[in-house]
Amino acid sequence: MPHMIWKGAISFGLVHVPVQLYPATQSEKVGFNLLDKRSMDPIGYKQINKNTGKEVTRDNIVRGFEYEKGKYVVMTDAEIRAANPESTQTVDILAFVDAPEISFLSLDTPYYLAPDRKGEKVYALLRDALKDTGKVGIASVVLHNKQHLAALIPVGPALALNTLRWGDEVRDFDQFKFPDEDTKKAGVTPKELEMAKRLIDDMSDTWDPAKYHDTFKDDIMALVDKKVKQGKVAEVMKIDEGGEEKASADILDLSELLKRSLKKGGAPTRRGAKAAPSDDDTGDESGEETARPARKTTRRKRA
């Protein structure tokens, strides 16, 4: 059972749903410690003055907000604590919106809300009402002394609370140069669009996260196990960095690339996946290829 973050209530109108908040995810990333290779002792860090290079003691360190380049307003810990929002232990629903209206770009960190203090019935009522209406709740919540905007989302048997990025935290499209949304102005032909749709249809599948896994982590853990079994727990092994050849992405003809992809039934989406055969032959009637991908050798880097 994961560690509970806090217990409180979901509040909307006059209804209060007692809940407990738990993290919905867990980190499975591969982590490394920095070591002195001569003794295998851990390497630490020092806080130094960037101008003088000298170490600074903790009692000489303050927090400052840079309001202009090189100019700061110093804030004490007490001032920062006073500016923090009061923790109310409630998920205050501000509005209900259609779920598709929330962009993936706004999603931040997910949590689970579990019913508390015999609140199962009202919990189920809110969950099922959200499912039936296709709505999610937009809420305000304080977590770790910081105010968050969040979405209350029904997920299977659970209510999830997904913190959201504030509007000014997501960059505007106009900061980048994207192709025109008008297909013709973007230079895409109807034939290319149709082939792309067919390729997407050929590669369509149901979402199952169990089908995908972190192959880098698998390789690292296999190497760790190998070193442990060989007793090489404090030695550096020489690794063969030779890798498989991969086709270059430099294809001159987009239509030709789509034709090849359709012939293969789509590129494999994961290690060990097979390409499904295509019933249609969309190749050139002459049997000649208009563009051939260049090949280059890439090296697979291992830790």
Report what the structure shows.
Residues 278-288 have a biased composition (Acidic residues). With 303 residues, this protein is an alpha+beta fold. It folds into two domains: 6-26 and 84-169, Ku70, Chain: A, Domain 2, CATH 2.40.290.10; 190-297, no CATH class. It is 20% helix and 27% strand. The chain has helices at residues 77-83, 120-133, 190-202, 215-229, 254-264, and strands at 6-12, 15-23, 35-36, 41-42, 63-68, 71-75, 90-98, 107-115, 135-143, 146-155, 158-164, 245-247, 295-297. The strands form four sheets. It has a seven-stranded mixed barrel. The protein has a two-stranded antiparallel sheet with strand order 3-4. A two-stranded antiparallel sheet has the order 5-6. The longest helix is centred in the C-terminal third of the chain and has 15 residues, at 215-229. The protein is extended, with a radius of gyration of 27 Å.
